[in-house]
Specification:
Elements: H1 2-8, E1 42-51, E2 54-61, E3 73-79, H2 86-101, E4 113-115, H3 119-122, E5 126-130, H4 137-143, H5 159-162, H6 172-191, E6 194-195, E7 204-206, E8 212-214, E9 221-222, E10 229-230, H7 246-251, E11 253-254, H8 256-271, H9 286-291, H10 304-313, H11 324-336, H12 338-362
Antiparallel strand pairs: 1-2, 2-3, 3-5, 4-5, 6-9, 7-8, 10-11
Helix pairs in contact: 6-8, 6-11, 8-10
């Protein structure tokens, strides 16, 4: 039975062969019983999103004695869209095991609990996480526009001071700190070690004080740091190719460096306020486009130094890309000097408003 397998740490579907050096399989581990919830502990409300392997509903945690939340806490409840769908259940199982196995980090979506005891009756598995105030980062970016106000705070690099949840617009400093937080969260995952495999702004949530949290771990895998994770032949996985490097598109190879490539695409999304990468290229032609040297253009609201980091992340050879530790250092150094960061943000933000004014005149 699926719920028994999940409690015992066994995968839903066992691999047909043993892992090799170039093809490592995720070793299952039991989930701590503190994460077990019953369906009666939840009250379901509106559907707020859906993806290839699940849908998300807004809800309330009614359980009074849960250690991480109080009764009445608003939560997001992710479940398979089709009852007893084997692929969807596998993806959700991988996600809940991954979240349950990781230590807390401010930029990683935490797990509140999971409902697995309803699988036998209804064929449904539920993952419960905190409800993000501003939903996903891409939607948030698209809905916001730069603002010239709050110059007096724009140079403070501390997340809790720089990010003001009452702001209804984004400044240049907000974009930079999004990059800092994302690098921080991914550097943490790289030390697990864990490869995310689906890093994109649509899978990053924006919470209170504009803190971002990396989510959607359905494709994530733990792996031996000496090797890479290579998908098994014959197993279908979604392919967000515009966020994938060549080694992943052509050979299904995923490492920290493939996540670094996706991180660079996320930076493009952030500094373009949610623009789709490679808008002129059809998804099936992205590999040849990259092989011929094609890259995203510099985002309009991006400085040269930030674009230089993106270009490094998009190098075709994985060994030429930076590590997440180096990406984190880049943003830490950029924001560490409050006076320098203030000057950088003021100049960059003034440049943004000049571009906006020019766009308004041309339209």
């Amino acid at each position: 039975m699926l719920e028994r397998r999940l409690k015992n740490g066994n995968p839903i579907v066992r691999a047909m062969h043993s892992p090799t050096n170039d093809q490592l399989l995720l070793k299952s581990s039991a989930i701590d019983e503190k994460y077990y919830l019953n369906l009666r502990d939840l009250e379901f409300f509106t559907k707020i999103g859906s993806g290839q392997f699940g849908s998300v509903q807004m809800g309330i945690l009614k359980k009074v004695d849960h250690e991480s939340c109080v009764s009445g806490t608003m939560v997001a409840i992710k479940s398979n869209q089709v009852s007893r769908n084997r692929t969807e259940l596998e993806m959700l199982e991988e996600e809940v095991k991954m979240l349950a196995s990781m230590k807390p980090h401010p930029n990683i979506l935490p797990l509140i609990g999971t409902v697995i005891n309803d699988i036998r009756r209804s064929g449904m598995l539920y993952i419960v996480t905190p409800l993000a105030k501003y939903r996903d980062l891409r939607t948030f970016l698209i809905s916001k526009k730069p603002s010239p106000h709050n110059y007096e705070n724009i140079g403070k690099c501390e997340k809790d001071k720089l990010m003001n949840a009452d702001d209804v617009t984004l400044t240049k400093s907000d974009l930079t700190v999004f990059g800092l937080q994302l690098a921080d969260g991914m550097e943490f995952l790289a030390r697990v070690p864990c490869v995310h495999r689906d890093l994109a702004c649509r899978n990053i949530l924006v919470t209170e004080n504009k803190t971002i949290q990396i989510g959607d771990f359905g494709l994530a895998k733990k792996f031996n740091e000496k090797y890479c994770y290579k998908t098994q032949k014959g197993i279908y996985l979604p392919r967000p190719e515009k966020w994938m490097p060549l080694e992943s598109i052509n050979n299904d190879i995923f490492t920290e460096k493939s996540d670094v490539y996706s991180f660079g695409i996320c930076l493009f999304e952030i500094f373009s306020f949610g623009k789709t990468p490679y808008p002129e290229v059809c998804g099936g032609r992205i590999a040849s486009y990259l092989e011929n040297g094609g890259r995203n253009e510099k985002p309009k609201y991006c400085t040269d130094i930030e674009y230089a980091l993106m270009l490094k992340c998009w190098m075709n050879a994985p060994e030429d890309r930076p590590t997440f530790h180096e990406c984190l250092q880049f943003f830490q150094e950029l924001t560490s000097n409050s006076v320098g960061f203030l000057f950088y943000c003021v100049i960059a933000t003034m440049f943004i408003f000049q571009l906006i004014a020019e766009d308004e005149k041309s339209s």
